[in-house]
Sequence to fold (265 residues):
Amino acid sequence: MNVPSQTVGRPEPDEIPSHYVGYIKRVPELDPVIACAAQIEDTATLLRGLSDTDAMYRYERGKWSIKEVVGHLGDVERIMAYRALRIARGDTTPLPGFDENAYVPVAKFDTRALGDLVGELRTARAATLALLRTFDADAWQRRGTASGKPVSVRALAYMIPGHERHHVEWHSRSRRGSCCRSRLVTAHTKEFVVIMTLVLATLMQQPAAPPPPPGPSALEVGVVAPDFAIPGATRYGTLKNPVKLSDYKGKTVVLAFFFKARTRG
Fold:
C-alpha cells in the first residue's frame, strides 16, 4: 500500500533526537518514501564511475574509505528500518543504541568489491521501501525510544535519506578538493609534509603593496631569501595561521606559482 504523502508529514521537533536534526534538514521533500526511492539511483550513479582503487580513497588518514562509507550506509539503514518497524507496530520497548565506529572495522568492507557493496545497499533500500509503503497514518506518527531518546516512525524514515545525503555530500566535496592539487605547493621534510596554496585570485583581492625599496629586481643565486608569510592550506582545509618562510629555516623549500589553473578561483 502506498500511503499519500500528506499522511506522513514532517516530524515535529519533539519527535527528532538532537543528533538527527542535521540529517533530517537535508531532506526538504514532503514524503520520505519518494525521497528514498529516488535517492538510491542517484547514489548508485555517483558510485558507478569509481573503480575499486578509487573507492579506497580516504579524505583524511584514519577516516573511512568510500567502500567503508557505503557499507556503513547499509548498516545504518537496516537499523533505522528495524527501529521504524518495531515502533510502527506499537512496540514500546526502549531500543538500544549502536556504535558505528566499532561496526566498520570488523565488517571489512575494504576487502569487498564496490559493486557488491552498492548491490547490498540497493537490496537494503528495496526492503526499506517495501516496509515504509505499508505504514498508515497512525503508524507514521507512533513514537518510541531509541538510544535513550524519543523518536517517531516518520523521523526515522527521514533519517535514512538524510544520513545518506550527509555522507554523499561530504565525500563529493572532499574528492573535488583532491582534484585541485595543481594549485598546491609541497615542501617535503623528513618529519612532515606541508602543502601551501598560492591562489592568484586571493592575492589580487589584497590591498596594493607599497613599492619595493630600491635594489635589484630579482634575487641572485646564493642570496638569502627575505622572510614572508602567506595563507596556507593542507589537503584537509585552510590553516589557521599563515605560513612563514622562516618556519622552514634549515630545510629545503620548493615554491611554485600558478597564475591560472583549470579550477575555480
About this structure: The domain at 5-178 is CATH 1.20.120.450 (Four Helix Bundle (Hemerythrin (Met), subunit A)).
